[in-house]
Amino acid sequence: MTPTKPTILFIHGAWHQPWMYDPFLNELRSQGHEVIAPELRCNDYKTYADPAAADITFFSGLAEKLAEEGKEIVCAMHSYGGAVGTEAMHGLGVEQRRAKGLQGGVTRLVYICGFMVMKGYTLDAAAPDVFQYQGEFKTFKEGQDVGDFFYCDLPKEEQKRLVDAFVPHPKSCSFRVPQVAAYEEIPSTFIYGTMDKAFPYKDQQALVGALTAEGIKIDTFTLESSHSPTMSMPKKTAELVLQYA
Q1: What share of the chain has pLDDT > 70, as a percent?
Q2: What is the CATH classification number for the domain harbouring 150?
């Protein structure tokens, strides 16, 4: 019998919708993997009193359900999705579940220019000076070229198409303070983007360096990309993820 390929669970970034990642997701699917990429709960911010907690609860429950079906899972995360996955996958590693006599679980965390948030710190603490908070939302300062900020390696017309599809993002998501971190238990990979303006390359390196200094083992790859290699380099990004699937 041919072994079942791991399921790839993808957690997308703030302001985005899953379909915006289709070029990347379809590259993963083309290799025969089940790919699950639901929309963030915080996109439906009116429904939840605590949108960040809703994201974490939802993706944790989804990963646990997949694990209970005996599936091994590679969790790939982009941008804010990394903050969600860092908490949501905690306790769901395949080794942690096996130690309890349970099947399935997460075999690898892959952060794609993703916020591998350290315990006790918020996303806001590391945010570039381009954001502002208006009421309950996190937005961009007037005059900010949002397309270039996220997708500087895409044509202007494609940048506009993507930015025009943005949905509001709750302010509260940037102020959540994580108390657990799945990367302490589950093998992790970080994909750097050298042209990233949303999470600058030097800041990515500093974060990975700080975690490495704490004893966290992190595989790394580097792409000459913006914050969104899933859009500008979908095939190459997928190839990196598939190394673990």
Answers
A1: 99
A2: 3.40.50.1820
